[in-house]
Design brief:
Leucine-rich repeat, LRR (right-handed beta-alpha superhelix), Immunoglobulin-like, 21 strands, elongated, single chain, mainly beta, 5-stranded antiparallel beta sheet, 8-stranded mixed beta sheet
């Protein structure tokens, strides 16, 4: 009777056969299966997991990386728990998940575009990592996401509109990030004040920079003067009183206003090519679009935004556009130059 009793107990509690030795696999309703592999001192995802596993728990192990091949056998996983590992790298190609916990790992980078394929995702936990870059479109397809936790990372800024696509979001954790409380982040202050989303520990959503705001909660940052950048261009010699000739040395001056001070660059469009000239760099090898390339030294750009054309010719005829850009926005001004 003892063998039959053991078989009956196994069937009653749903313990699955064919489960890899470090794990415990339990049958759930409707053919679903839980694979419990937490606290097993694993350094990689175990092979041989049942194909019908829908919940895979790998928390509190010693996993260093997630490789795409690690999940080829478990294509039905909808909940993946990976907290408290040592994960520092993730290959592209995550599963079609509803819940994923990557918290308390060592992630400094993440394949954000993979999230675009996880439109069914409802819970995303990435807190307590070393993430510093958050693309503005990272969450654009996650309309079913309910809870997002990206607190305790290294994010210095969050682009305006980052959370706009999260129409189902009810819980957001963004505290304990070293925020740079400049004009680019002021939108977050106003958004957090008016949203219906639960945002806990708001006093810990605080500034690490600039020094004048260090330690100050974002909600208490005073209004900042954030004027839109402006730019103005002129030439030397003045084209109002001088006719250009072959071989002239032409200086194009660009000045900009704005807070913070805008960065300047030039865009040159001639009959044969378009070129971006970014400075300062003296001399400068410009980058040409379409495979055409001007010779080194055709343009020189100085720290003050002045563009030098040392030997103006028919080849340099075209439209010269100065671009001034900062975190608030951008402005450009153009001039046409011809012999």
């Amino acid at each position: 009777m003892a063998p039959f009793l053991c078989m009956w107990i196994a069937a009653f509690f749903g313990v699955s056969q064919g489960c890899p030795e470090p794990c415990t696999c339990v049958e759930k309703k409707f053919g679903r299966q839980l694979a419990e592999c937490a606290y097993r001192d694993l350094q990689e995802v175990p092979a041989g997991l049942p194909s019908n596993v829908t919940t895979l728990t790998l928390s509190a192990n010693r996993l260093h990386a997630l490789q795409q091949r690690s999940f080829l056998e478990v294509t039905q996983v909808s909940s993946l728990w990976l907290a408290h590992n040592e994960i520092s790298a993730i290959e592209a190609g995550l599963l079609h998940l509803k819940n994923i916990d990557l918290s308390h790992n060592q992630l400094a980078d993440f394949p954000w575009r993979d999230l675009h394929n996880l439109s069914a995702l409802q819970l995303l936990k990435m807190n307590n990592n070393q993430l510093a870059r958050l693309p503005a479109d990272a969450f654009r397809t996650l309309r079913d996401l309910r809870s997002l936790r990206i607190n305790n990372n290294e994010f210095a800024t969050i682009a305006q509109g980052t959370f706009d696509s999260l129409t189902s979001l009810s819980h957001l954790q963004i505290y304990n990030n070293p925020l740079n409380c400049t004009c680019a982040l002021l939108w977050l202050k106003g958004w957090a004040e008016n949203t219906l989303i639960s945002i806990p520990e708001r006093d810990s959503i605080s500034c690490a920079a600039p020094d004048s705001f260090r330690g100050l909660p974002l909600a208490r940052v005073p209004a900042l003067a954030c004027p839109w950048p402006g730019s103005r261009a002129c030439s030397q010699p003045s084209l109002d009183s001088t006719e250009l000739h072959e071989g002239f040395t032409l200086l194009l001056h660009c000045s900009a206003t704005g807070s913070p001070p805008p960065e300047l660059s030039w865009r040159v469009q001639t009959a044969s090519q378009g070129t971006e000239v970014n400075g300062p760099s003296v001399p400068m090898k410009d980058r040409a679009a379409g495979g055409s390339k001007q010779s080194a030294g055709s343009f020189v750009i100085f720290k003050n935004g002045t563009l030098l054309i040392p030997n103006f010719s028919k080849r340099e005829e075209g439209t010269y556009t100065c671009l001034a850009a900062n975190e608030v926005g951008a402005h450009e001004v153009s001039a046409s130059e011809a012999l």
